[in-house]
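Field notebook, page 308. I keep forgetting to write these up properly, so this time I am using the form the group agreed on. The chain and the ligand, 4'-deoxy-4'-aminopyridoxal-5'-phosphate, are recorded exactly as supplied. Prediction of the bound pose follows.
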Amino acid sequence: MPLTPVEKIWMDGELVAWEDAKIHVLSHGLHYGTGIFEGVRAYETKRGASVFRLDDHVRRFFRSAHIHQMELPFSPEEIAQGIKETVAANGLATCYIRPLAFRGYGEMGLNPLLAPVNVSIAVWPWGAYLGEEGLENGVRVKVSSWKRNDHNMLPPSAKASGQYVNSALAKVEAIKGGYDEAVMLNIHGYVTDGSGENVFIVRDGVLYTPPLSAGCLDGITRDSVIAIAKDLGYEVREKELVRADLYTADEGFFSGTAAEVCPIREVDDRALGANGRGPITKEIQQTFFAAARGEIDKYQRWLGFVNE
Ligand code: PMP
């Protein structure tokens, strides 16, 4: 899905024209991956655009920066405000939002502490990340031959730009192999997450997802899914999973801001029990979308209205 340009991008506190949001080719982050970012979505609700779990995303943005010892020149309140302003300035109700903090232009060499920190917030219309068909009928997944970066290599609990080279290797391997998405194992062989999504399986009516210690990101959609599943009366267990657990699951799905709640139909050419969107996946998916669109009172706490 190519990017659809919108009007404005927030750069270091100012809204600038989309085409003017440029950086120098000698920016540190471009060479060494020294940046941290977030992926956020806004959904249209009866009260206008709402940024889903805005404060949680801003908190994770600052946690990522802290892990990488980047002092951000803005407060969490300013970033949250910047996100709302950028959505509003582009007149979008439903969109994807990308806050990014990166080491900028001024110094080269590996020490990132010498380079300035720049912050940008961009928004654009983005449909179903794994395709509308995927949301309906599930995606085909490959367990990657690339392992997820370990806690002592590149902390997977931070959303750092450079670590997505690891995800990109897995994604390319999956796409070139004819699959829609990759699942990555950690160096011990346990399931972590997709290239940009957390993983859930369902077996005998119980949901399972890897614990954060396996090396998956502390996904905000993952957290929403766990809350929704429990509210629907399902048991959710965080448990280390191996690849065969995926093959033999009744149902499986990804959770992520971009991918939303997307069923997994097959893993390594083995159909999961449901061979499509399973009934529990569908119930959670529908509840998730209804919550994000402000249709369920009990999840109003997750809404961040842009115009209020
Ligand atoms: N794992 C990885 C590696 C990711 O990049 C993402 C996307 N941020 C997720 C999981 C899902 O996290 P979230 O639900 O917060 O978007």
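OBSERVATIONS:
- The chain has a mean pLDDT of 97.
- The first strand starts at residue 8 and ends at 11.
FOLLOW-UP: compare against the apo run.
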